[in-house]
Amino acid sequence: MNILIVDDEQHVREAIKLLIDWEQLGIHQIFEADNGDSAIELLGKIQPEIVITDMRMPNRDGVELLAWMKEHGRKSKSIVISGYDDFHLVRSSMKYGGQDYLLKPIDPEQLTEALQKAKLSWEQEDQARRLDQQRSIEINQIKPVYRDKLFSTMISEAGSGVQVTVPAVLKEEFGLENVEQCQVIILSTGMLEPQISRKFNGNRDLLSFCLINVCNEILKQKNSGFAFRHWNSDHEIIILLWHRLTEWEALLALITEGILNSIHGKFHYGVGQAQPFPNGLFLSYQAARSALKQRNLLAESSYIHRSEQGFTTGVYSLSIASYEERFRLAVWSGKEKDIETAVESFLDAARDLPAISQEQVELWRFEYESMLSRWRQDLAAKQEVQASSEPPPGLPLFLLLDEQGRLSLELCRRELINGLTVFAALTGAGGNKEHSIMRDIAKYMEQHYNREVTLQDISERFYLSREYISRRFKQEMGENVFDYLGRIRVEKAKLLLQNPNLKIAQIAEMVGYDDDKYFSKVFKKFEGQSPNQYRKL
């Protein structure tokens, strides 16, 4: 805690400093000024918690100093020490926030008591300010989520047939009282271009945050609408327009340019028709969603998709379910050739389709996940593996796109063959019981040591429970999963440490550690010395 003493007489300032046990009061620094002007100059540089001031001084006096402090919102507690028992001065002191008015000669006990009172008052007010600041921070953090929830709820209510009421908080913030029409545009993050997926490394929250910021910056400039994360869908950002509806193409062009400049990628948009606000929200949303789901993933088309007919039920012309028995026989044969043949039979039919929509691919994913889940439960019933409470993730849609953002049937082929081969190894089918899936897991870690690899990632990729992997891996490989991964990383790091141009933090990141201190800890565990010591040797 700091204090400022303001008095035109130096001996008074010295007396104040000598009379008080400042250390006991918790006051560490004492500053001095000989008039109000020099005090104001000091107040611009320091933030004293307490100011002790005389009233009659040359230039700017004590009353003017206190008035200046109040006018400029200074939070310092003030104590007046004056040689004048003047009602006008006392009244002015109280008017401008003076805590106490003491008369000269100075009584040490009175001054100590006044300082203790001022200190307590400061601490209580400071604590209240901190609480208010914390509440403001929390409100500012919650507010965007709350707005997203309110807008998402309005879309849901419009779809349920009830009369939609615009919440007062949204009316007030966005001026929605006289809005008559609205238009929904969906920015889809469900099927990402591979370069975007790599850049954000699976962090969908960060990606959505960046996209929403870009959208709202442009929408705010044009006073045309608001972008928010749709609570009822993991991969949808809603751009809701209520002004400039006829300019939606120009707005999307600006948003696309902004995203391209900041994220270096493009995203697909589904555009709904203008509808009455707020009860037409759901119709516009469904039209936008339908436009996205029915776009042809095989064609190089525009990133903007419209559905003039509104929502229609998709037509599924090819089903994985009809190939399930063929896949099952191939897996239980345990022969890689049989699995490849079964997969090719499905893909031959897919290649004959004139178009493949996102809706079609989502159906395939659902059927594939359901098939694997049933097989997994069958194995668990036979006590051959431990069933996980969560279903396997199947085919992530974004992994099926090529660099141009089109559906790649070759990537579909690889994913299907990989998943079915894993199941073949898991069952020990075809007499191939010597094959250990744990060695496949070890190989996977050797190939991906420079990325964040978690037990959950491995569980989802190999369709085994985390508990089963932990137990079996240690039995077969002689050490637990993370010790094995740590050993691989340390061996790679030892090679990189031979390059004197690489910093330890760079090497840590290159072998999969975000924290170089943690990397050093792991390195010392395996090598008995720090990375720096190893490099010197």
Care to describe what's here?
By secondary structure, the protein is of the alpha/beta class. 55% of the residues lie in helices and 10% in strands. The chain is built from 22 helices and eleven strands. It has helices spanning 10-19, 22-25, 36-43, 62-71, 87-95, 108-160, 168-174, 194-200, 204-222, 248-263, 281-293, 324-333, 336-351, 358-381, 409-427, 437-447, 455-462, 466-477, 481-496, 504-510, 516-527, 531-536, and strands at residues 2-6, 29-33, 50-53, 77-82, 98-103, 181-188, 225-229, 236-241, 268-271, 275-276, 304-306. Strands 6, 7, 8, 9, 10 and 11 form a six-stranded mixed beta sheet that branches. Strands 2-1-3-4-5 form a five-stranded parallel beta sheet, with helices on both faces. Helix 4 (62-71) links the parallel strand 3 and strand 4 (77-82). Helix 6 packs across helix 11 and helix 20 (504-510) crosses helix 21 (516-527). The longest helix has 53 residues, at 108-160. Residues 309-314, 384-398 and 431-435 have low confidence and may be disordered.
